[in-house]
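Lecture 7 notes: from sequence to structure.

We start with a single chain of 420 residues. Read the sequence below before looking at the structure.
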Amino acid sequence: MAATHGCDADHKSASPPAPVRAPSLDDVRTARKMLSGVSRVTAMEGSRHLSRLVGAPVHLKCENLQRTGSFKLRGAYVRIAGLSAPERAAGVVAASAGNHAQGVALAASLLGVRSTVFMPVGAPLPKVAATREYGAEVRTHGQVVDETLHAAQEYARATGAVFIHPFDHPDVVAGQGTVGLEILEQCPDVGTVVVGMGGGGLAAGIALAVKALRPEVRVVGVQAEGAAAYPPSLAAGRPVALAAPATMADGIKVGRPGDVPFKIVGDLVDEVRTVTEDALSRALLLCLERAKLVVEPAGASPVAALLTDPDAFRGPVVAVLSGGNVDPLLLQQVLRHGMAAAGRYLSLRLRLTDRPGSLATLLGVLSEADANVLDVSHARTDPRLGLREAEVELRLETQGPVHCEEVRKVIREAGYTVMP
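Now the structure, written as tokens:
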């Protein structure tokens, strides 16, 4: 069933495009044999919280625990392993801000192939360091991935190195499809597989494997609202480029679907949905707090879809956590955003009588309400205030929206006026 609605450049040519070779189930099975002893059969963990929310069993496919921290090793290894001896001798080159870089670096090292990886200037230092440690020569170029990609392709033309695309190649799609085979073995009665989508390689590979063996299983792709290239592309019947994709989820921040995965997604993925940045933040927070799993925003996108519309998925549901390579600084920001989106922060401004002990009394009221005070701003000199008045601005950590209302009620009952 073709995808119908929502989760790089659109070239015009007088001649019809060359046919795209789609991988087959046999290709996926061959890829699995190639990956034996290389990639992990990642764990599948049940989620009681999400199961209660959805009303059916929900399982998390933990590709964030894969070697290099994401599914990307699978496709990169299969692609490089398929190169001829002269191609291997020429080396490989890739462009990536993180997950693909690490996957190519490790895959090439395991196969004894020289690798060069171009990364944007300002790429997170832990990802740059990990890529080097996996054996690649890292070169930084450009402020955005498009500039980095151009530099890598120029390097390939100049040196003869083989460019390893992150998603737009049959071998890469076949490698990612091994995730689908594992899902069917680990959860034989699966009803719906939910997977994040950028260029579409992982979703296409999973759909290829799952639909070939269990055509009744629904496959749902998820994109970030600000980087959702698949809905307009599917509507147009061809890959269409977004002018400026924008999302915190770097792993699915892709401006144009790949030609190879696009055809598969159009034929086999049942639905493509989009999720907001708030939903991504809440999903990442939930994975950390409830599942004890560190997941990057892209990897949390299937969970975001479940949180956004829990009644839309036939169970049992498998949500693919595609990666866990999140920069610590971004993680800190996203967790704060996720707590705010989940109603876990409350900001209040109120006036009180300016006398000794008045602030301490207010803080005692908040303590009785089980609200954790994060910041206090105390002003006495504002010309809007009366002679014996003070204004206090508070930022509180709460237990959620219901608790926020309880805190407001306790403050009002204590005689304080909350300012608009």
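The CA atoms of residues 42 and 126 lie 23 Å apart. Keep this in mind for problem set 3.
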